[in-house]
Design a protein that fits this description.
homodimer; alpha+beta; 4 strands; about 30% helix
């Protein structure tokens, strides 16, 4: 199982519409990716481990697929629509990585 | 539900023993945190979204709790033992954040 993680850095002065992200964007992503996407997790950064510290990421989401190929096949045809929706909820540039699920 | 995410930056020349991390360290963490820890996810970074690019994080783990207080109560008594085990698998300093689970 692989995991595609999207991280939105918690940058001062930037905007992030969590309501749109969870209710509109991620719903659209799941609908477009279909059954190839086995699971979606999304979270909102509260803070760092030290009380009062900032969270590194204001939001993150994680999409699970059986393989990198399954992700690429599902995502490729919809990449433009999915990436094109980003300005509707944020002006933060996300970092993305692909990982292998170990536990 | 809250999520405590631990990120290990993918730094050149540093070591990370994934076998020890998954089989020894995270088993010990789960045993010490007990039932307060509802779920553990761990993954190994494969790469960035662009083919051939590096993953930002060589490893990540995510621990789920009902609340920040539940995490602090479970983790506090074992913080020294858990953090003290880190040098056994890595010389990378992790970043940690607490997030609220949205999806």
């Amino acid at each position: 199982m692989i995991k595609v993680s999207v991280f939105y850095p918690n940058q001062e002065g930037k905007k992030f519409d969590m309501g749109y992200y969870c209710n509109k964007h991620l719903s659209m992503v799941q609908q477009k990716l279909g059954a190839a996407c086995k699971r979606v997790d999304a979270e909102q950064g509260l803070g760092g481990i030290e009380p009062g510290s900032r969270a590194t990421y204001i939001a993150m989401c994680h999409l699970y697929f059986d393989s990198v190929e399954a992700f690429q096949t599902a995502f490729g045809p919809h990449a433009k629509a999915i990436m094109g929706d980003i300005p509707n909820y944020t002006n933060i540039q996300p970092t993305i990585q692909i990982s292998e699920v170990k536990i």
